[in-house]
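Exam revision sheet. Question 4 asks you to relate a sequence to its structure. Input first:
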Amino acid sequence: MKKVIISILLIFIIALFACSCELVGQDKPAKEPEAGAADNTASADSSAPAEVAPTAEPSVEPSSDPTPETSAEPSEEPSPEPSEEPAEPEATPATETTPEPEASPEQGDAPVSEAPATPDVSQYAPTIIAEATGSAVLKETSDYGQEYIDKMVFLGDSTTYGMKYYAVLKDGKNTNQVWTPSNGTLTLSYQSFASIVYPEDGTEITIREALEKKQPEYFVITLGVNGVSFMDEAYFKSEYSSLVADAQSICPNTKIILQSIFPVATNYEYLKSINNDNITAANGWIQSIAEAYNVRYLDTASVLRGDDGWLRQEYQNGDGLHLNETGFKQVLNYIRTHGYQ
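Answer key, structure tokens:
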């Protein structure tokens, strides 16, 4: 029995040994590649993306907040005259007001409305001056007559436009003698580029172009009332002198007359900015320019002032600044009796 058991164990051991021999020498199965892994058999060059040439950066980064598209082309050089004339400084600056203290009526009293107090203009009372004297000032002469006036061209602001409005010149409201912009006024600081309506054909051209075309016999300039509110002496003289020098160059045979700025009346609303002391100072600057450029100065202001130095009430249209028909006729009579010499 013992021999039988030993025999069975030997057979079992031999069988196990035979099985193990069959397994020895077989290849180990390859491991399955993981999903998405790179192919390790490919070369480094073949796995890299092809190189692309860089594109130019845009000149302007697009904004996250889109704005209306504008032309990339540069704008043309601006012309000396703007395509749309800038707004001129007003002859009448904005009013400055101070709130009145509220009245506190006694209990039981009904509030009473009072008439507004008359403004105190004593602080702006003008210095009384005599008629201007000097080598450039036109002195009193015999009456040169209407024919003398008819040969003149008047360039100016709204105080000149009134000559057309009141029809005091040849051909009345259709006169060709008044040069102003289409809005009827001209500020001295705009003289180099502002357009005026050329009355001969209704076109809008610069003052220099109009002088070139017209070559007037007499050229009367009345400018500066707006300028006294914001221009100092150097600025004022620079602009005025530029106009006079160019007029002499363009029209060498034209007789140039610089007319004084007209005074203002006591009821003018903006005396703080435009008053007779400022106007008198500016008229002195204009006279000095006339002497420097050997042209004539017309002291019309002297015939418009009253004994108190203010513009006479009978010569103004109600706003304290502009003349009425009577005032302009007084100016024209003064011009006729202070002829060019």
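Marking note for examiners. The mean pLDDT is 78.
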